[in-house]
Write a structure and sequence with these properties.
The complex is a heterodimer. Chain A is of the alpha+beta class. Chain A has 3 domains: 6-203, 4-Layer Sandwich (Aldehyde Ferredoxin Oxidoreductase,  A, domain 1); 242-439, Aldehyde Ferredoxin Oxidoreductase Protein, subunit A, domain 2 (Orthogonal Bundle); 446-515 and 535-613, Aldehyde Ferredoxin Oxidoreductase Protein, subunit A, domain 3. Chain A is built from 24 helices and 17 strands. In chain A, the strands form 4 sheets. Chain A has a 6-stranded mixed beta sheet with strand order 2-1-6-3-4-5, sandwiched between helices. A 6-stranded mixed beta sheet of chain A has the order 8-7-12-9-10-11. The longest helix of chain A has 21 residues, at 536-556. The mean pLDDT of chain A is 97. The N and C termini of chain B lie far apart (37 Å). Chain B has one helix at residues 34-41; strands at 2-7, 23-27, 50-53, 56-57, 73-77. Chain B has a 5-stranded mixed beta sheet with strand order 2-1-5-3-4, with no helix packed on it. By secondary structure, chain B is mainly β. The chains are: A alpha+beta, B mainly beta.
Chain lengths: 617, 83
């Protein structure tokens, strides 16, 4: 089985926590986590509801392999309707709380309604209760985490928590678990705050023993671990340099979005790269990077643990930031660095700490600061708007100040919490917002990586790299190399990545395994754990079903196909340097073919026969 | 002829002693191929996964028969990935 077959329904309005049986018919069609929780959401809420109203629901969901012996089997996701995009949100996180939920006996927790006063959910195996969070509200994630551990006198309690940014209404607030792992994107933390739910604290000691065929499962798991260990990317590259090794790669090929995506190469990239994190500092001879770190059950361990130079202006006289904490991943380093023109590694690391401490998505935050910097340069906002701060591109001190303000929602931080789209609209220059469906871009310029333009435009949660990471093929040659500057074949490539990723995201595994694993490695692990026949074809069909379910939800929420597009800058303003010089993203050459491959009409509507084929009719 | 060699991640150990950070300025004979340049610096060919010539990926079969030109930048990575 691998599923516990049990979910916890928490009615925050009524203050009740009631167990119920998992819908196994749906589990067989949507597997778990992203897919299964989206099915529950689509069945249980009106897609047109106010995402910050009590009628929205928020689901914390594990996959069938979460908490098992499978490598990276510690993932969970937060699924809800996003206040940033107005569409389905699914934010995936590692750390340990997902496995703890499963060990406590729960496949997922559904939160509905709104608590009259701030509360947190305490779960200890089958015991679940809402408790007052009066003393936690107004505290950062890190403060609340410490208070909860003290209160329960349990060092092994696993905690997911929102910070002050969410309480202040920042529309891209994250849910942080285990201090520095994040269900980061689309404002899932903002929804949690709207429900007066400060934290979820879980302790599970029941184990995860409900494996359908233990021998077949362990054979597949051990074979998979061997593949990860022997693969140069997952066995050596990611543990040593983390995702940040991409900084110089993407910059070198001229696909590094820079200064609000006006440019495609950043002159300071090497100062904030994965290699730079290994270089000794002039002050104390220590590198930024202390060590790597792994989430539950992970045999890759790509996580970064870093320090900031004690003498750096950002932490001077702030000893609470002198210790080790979650360091820069590539996406954060890009958004906080290249996109704002800041190449101060210590400043970026400190801001990354703040994003973890107060639950901010560093991608959306950095990109929103970048938009604000361009607004400032254009004169649409002034020092009067920013509270006296010079918001020119490249200002490390300004970036630090903006992060501190956004963390607590004070001053101009309140405006920054709107996200790039609403900020640029407020100040009369919506064309400066680099977003798709109101969500900010990640770290790959689609003028230099054409397939990513299609992946962004059609992503069900707005601009996102993790919904169809064709960078793997177009840049890294995984599983095979394609030319990043051509559009031919990219529609098929994007669809294949989107469907496979949806299945992986529903399994409890980390998508980073797919740098080494194909579905031929993953399906046998799912098959060993779960009842029924889970072969490669079925996994891919489940992925396609999930993709169409999300699309259908979005259309019912009011999304239109003309939102399957990119900002004009990327379609009209050519790249200024590098191999892509003179190129824009040729979305119009890929989108019609993509719709056809998906079984959608030329207008982007899912055809009835496609819905029927996938059991969505 | 003058070209720039950039080695990243675990390949940095193969940089010549006068390298600055990731890059070394090197003199090569006209007609030198990327593979010949890598051989000269002791970079194992099987570890040269990503080879960019002026930012453009060179497929393995191109690395023997693409003569370097004055001012070329050859940047090389082992198998890497991120997200």
């Amino acid at each position: 089985m691998a599923w516990t077959r049990k979910i916890l329904r928490v009615d925050l309005s009524a203050g009740t926590c009631i167990p119920e049986a998992l819908n196994m018919a749906w589990a067989n069609e949507y597997l778990g986590q992203r897919g299964l929780a989206t099915k529950y959401l689509a069945e249980e809420i009106d897609p047109t509801c106010d995402p910050l109203g009590p009628e929205n629901k928020m689901i914390m969901a594990t996959g069938p392999l979460t908490g098992t012996m499978a490598s990276t089997g510690g993932r969970y996701s937060v699924i809800t309707k996003s206040p940033l995009t107005g569409l389905v949100a699914c934010s995936n996180s590692g750390g340990f709380i997902g496995a703890e939920m499963k060990n406590a006996g729960w496949d997922m927790i559904i939160f509905e309604g709104k608590a009259p006063e701030p509360v947190y959910l305490y779960v200890e195996n089958d015991k679940a209760e809402l408790r007052s969070a009066a003393d936690l509200w107004g505290k950062s994630v890190w403060e609340a985490d410490e208070l909860l551990h003290k209160k329960h006198q349990d060092a092994q309690l696993r905690i997911a928590c929102i910070g002050r940014s969410a309480e202040a209404g920042c529309l891209y607030a994250a849910v942080i678990n285990d201090l520095h792992r994040a269900a980061g994107r689309s404002g899932v933390g903002t929804v949690m705050a709207s429900k007066n739910l400060k934290a979820v604290a879980v302790r599970g000691t029941l184990g995860v023993g409900n494996i359908d065929d233990p021998k077949a499962f362990m054979d597949a798991v051990n074979a998979g671990k061997q593949v990860l260990a022997e693969n140069a990317v997952t066995g050596q590259g990611l543990p040593t340099y983390g995702t940040q090794v991409l900084m110089n790669v993407i910059n070198g090929m001229g696909a590094m979005p820079t200064r609000n995506m006006r440019e495609v190469q950043f002159e300071g990239a090497e100062n904030i790269s994965g290699e730079a994190m290994h270089e000794p500092r002039a002050s104390d001879g220590k590198p930024n990077l202390t060590t790597n770190a792994g989430c539950f059950g992970c045999t890759i361990a790509c996580g970064r643990i870093s320090t900031v130079d004690k003498g750096h202006f950002s932490v001077k006289n702030k000893p609470e930031y002198w210790g080790n904490s979650g360091g820069l991943e590539y996406e954060a380093a890009w958004a906080l660095g290249s996109d704002t023109g800041v190449d101060d590694l210590d400043a970026l690391t400190y801001v990354n700490f703040l994003c973890n401490e107060d639950g901010i998505d560093p991608i959306s935050f950095g990109a929103t600061v970048a938009a604000a910097m361009e607004l400032y340069q254009a004169g649409a906002i002034t020092r009067e708007t920013t509270g006296g701060i010079d918001l020119s591109f490249g200002g490390a001190d300004a970036l630090v100040k903006m992060a501190e303000l956004t963390a607590t929602g004070e001053g101009f931080g309140k405006d920054l919490g709107l996200g790039s789209k609403r900020l640029c609209e407020k100040y009369g220059m919506p064309e400066l917002s680099m977003t798709v469906k109101n969500q900010e871009f990640p770290a790959y310029d689609p003028r230099g990586i054409q397939g990513m333009g299609l992946a962004y435009a059609t992503s069900n949660r707005g601009a996102c790299h993790l919904r169809g990471y064709t960078v793997a093929s177009e840049v890294l040659g995984i599983p095979f190399k394609t030319d990043p500057l051509v559009t031919d074949g990219k529609a098929e490539l994007v669809k294949a990545f989107q469907d496979a990723t949806a299945a992986v995201d529903s399994s409890g595994l980390c998508v980073f395994t797919t740098f080494a694993w194909s579905m031929e490695n993953i399906a046998p692990q799912v098959d060993g754990a779960c009842e029924g026949d889970w072969n490669v074809d079925r996994m891919l069909e489940v992925g396609e079903r999930i993709w169409n379910l999300e699309r259908d939800f979005n259309m019912r929420a009011g999304m239109t196909a003309d939102q399957d597009t990119l900002p004009k800058r990327l379609l009209k303003e050519a790249a200024n340097v590098g191999p892509a010089q003179g190129r824009v993203n040729d979305l119009d050459k890929m989108l019609p073919e993509y719709y056809e491959l998906r079984g959608w009409t030329p207008e982007g509507q899912i055809k009835p026969e496609t819905l029927n084929r996938l059991g969505l009719g | 002829m003058h070209v720039r060699l950039e080695l990243y991640a675990s390949l940095m150990k193969h940089l010549p002693p006068d390298a600055v950070r990731h890059r070394a300025e090197v003199e090569v004979d006209a007609g030198t191929s990327p593979h010949a340049l890598l051989d000269r610096c002791g970079v194992p060919r099987e570890q040269a996964h990503l080879v960019l010539r002026n930012g453009v990926f060179l497929y393995p079969e191109q690395r023997d028969d693409t003569p370097l030109e004055e001012g070329d930048v050859i940047a090389v990575w082992p198998p890497v990935a991120g997200g």
